[in-house]
Amino acid sequence: MGSEVFHALKGTLHERGLGTAVGDEGGFAPDLASNEEALQMLMQGIDAAGYRPGEDVAIALDPATSEIYSEGRYVLASEGRSLSAAELTDYWADLAERYRSSRWRTAWTRRTGRVGGR
User: Fold this and answer.
1) Where do the DSSP E strands lie in 4-52?
2) Are 56 and 49 in contact (CB under 8 A)?
3) How far apart are CA 111 and CA 3, in angstroms?
4) pTM
5) Which residues of 50-82 are buried (b: 16+ CB within 10 A; e: fewer)?
6) What three-state secondary structure class fits 60?
7) DSSP track, 77-111
């Protein structure tokens, strides 16, 4: 199933003229306008593979927030903004609500309990 989604996502990215080179960890790194667009592309790849997000395939995130933390803020450089811890919490809560069908979770959400269970 994972391989099918991977190849379907590659096709979806290619159709949109986006890069399909694979990075060191085996994932795609296309030039997207936002982090949310990555979720949208992933959902399209899951659909293109013939699976249902949240039913057949779950999305998990490992955002590595220590990598984007600088001077008390979380810097989303590709989006040109930085967020406080509270704003980042709200941002992820909003994504979890809007992508509820995908039932994505992170270790962070389980620890905080703010978004877990959605």
Assistant:
1) none
2) no
3) 30
4) 0.75
5) ebebbeebebebeeeeeeeeeeeebeeeeeeeb
6) strand
7) GGGTEEE-HHHHHHHHHHHHHHTGGGT-B-HHHHH
Length of the chain: 118
Determine the Cα–Cα distance for residues 27 and 21; give it in Å rounded to an integer.
8
Q: Nearest-CA neighbor of 89 among 108, 71, 76?
A: 108
pLDDT tens series, the chain, 118 aa: 889 999 999 999 999 999 998 887 888 989 998 889 999 999 999 999 999 887 888 777 777 889 999 999 999 998 899 999 999 988 888 887 777 654 455 545 555 666 555 5
